[in-house]
Specification:
Layout lengths: L5 E7 L3 E6 L4 E6 L2 E4 L4 E4 L3 H17 L7 E6 L2 E5 L2 E2 L2 E8 L3 H6 L6 E11 L8 E2 L1 H6 L5 H23 L3 E8 L1 E3 L5 E3 L8 E5 L9 H4 L5 H13 L4
Antiparallel strand pairs: 1-2, 2-3, 3-7, 4-5, 6-7, 8-13, 9-10, 9-12, 10-11, 12-15, 13-14
Amino acid sequence: MKEAKKKNKLYEGKAKIVYETDNEDIYIQEFKDDATAGDGAKKGKIKSKGIVNNQVSGHLFTYLESYHVPTHFIKTLSDRAMFIKKLEMIPIEVVMRNIATGSLVKRYGVEEGKELEQPILEYYLKDDAKHDPMINEDHILSFGHADAEELKQIQRLTKKINAVLKSFFYRRNMLLVDFKLEYGRYKNGKICLGDEISPDTCRFWDVETNEKLDKDRFRQDLGKVEEAYQEVLKRVLKTVN
């Protein structure tokens, strides 16, 4: 089968550009070095971030597919781009939390770094203009963003992804603190994991030191941002028994 050719830019977000191709079922997702935080209040660039996020995402999508998690990933196109399946994206950010930090601590006064008794699954409306407000299952169903069966699949997949990736990262001396996922419908209506899995969308802490190895280094002006991204890439690609 001939390789799909890039055509028009379909969408450009804060971290990625999506292009149409001459195959209506295939898009190209290209990762940028741009970085934002605080609803875009803070802006900058992280050298080679796009390359890291493309490689990390491609590797993790492939790994999840081996556990029968359907994703939009087809194959890597270049150092900062991948072929993906065309999905009808569901405008919900699905957040899974394993360890208390960030907004969870601010909202509820939970102790920073506390390992939660069980993972917490949260939903946020994907709408920058409204600052991505938290919503619940009733909102999702009532607003028509997904039906009950789709929501059940999203919950099941998210819990499975959490279990698979927690183990994956722990074997590489990283704690999967929390992460954000996005889902969409493939042409047959099947729910698939989309977007990316990277230091932009996950919080990683070193198992021994609790050193942050993710975008929080940029958000909180901790320094060594590029080094943290490169360290995650190195550990993700490391072969572990």
